[in-house]
């Protein structure tokens, strides 16, 4: 079935309800994106298609999460290519609302605040970013609730699962802090949705795919590889039960002249609090997350790997 493009909440409700009935579906997946899609987004969409009867992807560049209007204006927009990529993955519906649909009265008065988890790491260099991101994710999660467009929810009793359809939303592990915050929001505020994390997709040489990579020169792209190399080194040490020796990995990144390191640390994957110092000096045991952010030329890049032993 061809992917259908909708631009208003009313159209989305109507179209997703119709599809659920047509397919006698018992589940709906939502894949929120800002467009300029690549293979990382495609993996999210494919995972959602595998796990759900109806899949909605959203494309919305959210002004609320950009501190800098230059960054917002510069954000790549390419709807036709994005639609083609999503159609290839089997996405049923693409919700690409204009700003006035999402914020009809201008900026919202009442917002979600990310709390202390939103102030560290990425939040430290982008004040307010996660409040804006969570506010729009909250809205998107509500837009995507399955079945709200049906005249009577009773229609679902005949669906495969019976009762209300399952609802899942897909987020990339690449944006680890966003993922941790979305999980907290959903749990703290009782959103009726299951959050599914999808592993980071990388190019063959290790660079994590990002819509920002297009702004790297060939030389900067080569230099940026040190980020994933340093993370891989830590993951290998963890798996081999060796001390992480974060300092030597940091020195490796700092030796690259085109890379300006912002942070590089080992944290708890849920709270993003740094793991105790002695975890780094003795053979690594347990679970952790190595996170890194750096400016490479004009581009700020983030990456992370799970550590497990
Ligand atoms: P964005 O459009 O950049 O806001 O990203 C939309 C979703 O795609 C987010 O959940 C991201 O974490 C996810 N994503 C971005 N890059 C990757 C990647 N390389 N691998 C997996 N997921 C990704």
* Chain-averaged pLDDT: 94
Extended strand count: 9
SS-based class: alpha/beta
**Strand arrangement, major sheet:** 1-4-3-2-5-6
> What is the radius of gyration computed over CA atoms, rounded to a whole number of angstroms?
20 Å
The domain tally reads: 2
Q: How many helical stretches?
A: 11
General form = globular
Low-confidence stretches: none
CATH architecture of the largest domain: 3-Layer(aba) Sandwich
- What distance lies between the first and last C-alpha atoms, to the nearest angstrom? 44 Å
Specify the biggest β-sheet.
6 strands, parallel
For this structure, the CATH topology of the largest domain is: Rossmann fold
Bound molecules: adenosine monophosphate
CATH class of the largest domain: Alpha Beta
Outline the structure in words.
- This protein has 309 residues and is of the alpha/beta class.
- It has 11 helices and 9 strands.
- The strands form 2 sheets. The chain has a 6-stranded parallel beta sheet, with helices on both faces. It has a 3-stranded antiparallel beta sheet with strand order 7-8-9, covered by helices on one side.
- It is globular, with a radius of gyration of 20 Å.
- The mean pLDDT is 94.
- Residues 33-34, 40-41, 43-44, 171-172, 174-175, 198, 200-201, 208-211 line the site of adenosine monophosphate.
């Amino acid at each position: 079935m061809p992917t259908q493009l909708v631009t208003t909440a009313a159209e989305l409700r109507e179209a997703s309800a119709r599809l659920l009935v047509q397919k006698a579906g018992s589940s709906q997946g939502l894949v929120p994106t800002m467009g300029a899609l690549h293979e990382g987004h495609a993996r999210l969409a494919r995972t959602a298609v595998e796990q759900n009867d109806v899949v909605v992807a959203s494309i919305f560049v959210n002004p609320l999460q950009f501190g800098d209007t230059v960054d917002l204006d510069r954000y790549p927009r390419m709807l036709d290519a994005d639609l083609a990529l999503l159609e290839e993955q089997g996405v049923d519906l693409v919700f690409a609302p204009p700003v006035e649909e999402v914020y009809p009265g201008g900026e919202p008065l009442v917002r979600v605040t990310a709390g202390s988890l939103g102030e560290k790491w990425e939040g430290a260099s982008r004040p307010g970013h996660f409040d804006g991101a969570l506010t729009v994710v909250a809205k998107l999660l509500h837009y995507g609730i399955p079945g709200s467009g049906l005249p009577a929810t009773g229609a679902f009793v005949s669906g495969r699962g019976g009762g209300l359809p399952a609802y899942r939303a897909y987020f990339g592990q690449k944006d680890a802090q966003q993922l941790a915050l979305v999980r907290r929001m959903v749990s703290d505020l009782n959103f009726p949705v299951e959050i599914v994390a999808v592993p980071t997709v990388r190019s063959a040489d290790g660079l994590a795919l990002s819509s920002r990579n297009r702004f790297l020169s060939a030389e900067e792209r080569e230099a940026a590889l040190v980020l994933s190399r340093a993370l891989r080194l830590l993951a290998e040490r963890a798996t081999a039960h060796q001390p992480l020796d974060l300092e030597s990995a940091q020195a490796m990144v700092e030796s690259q002249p085109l890379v300006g390191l912002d942070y590089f640390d080992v944290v708890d994957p849920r709270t993003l609090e740094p793991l105790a110092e002695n975890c780094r000096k003795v053979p690594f045991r347990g679970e952790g997350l190595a996170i890194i952010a750096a400016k490479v030329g004009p581009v700020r890049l983030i990456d992370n790997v799970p550590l497990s032993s």
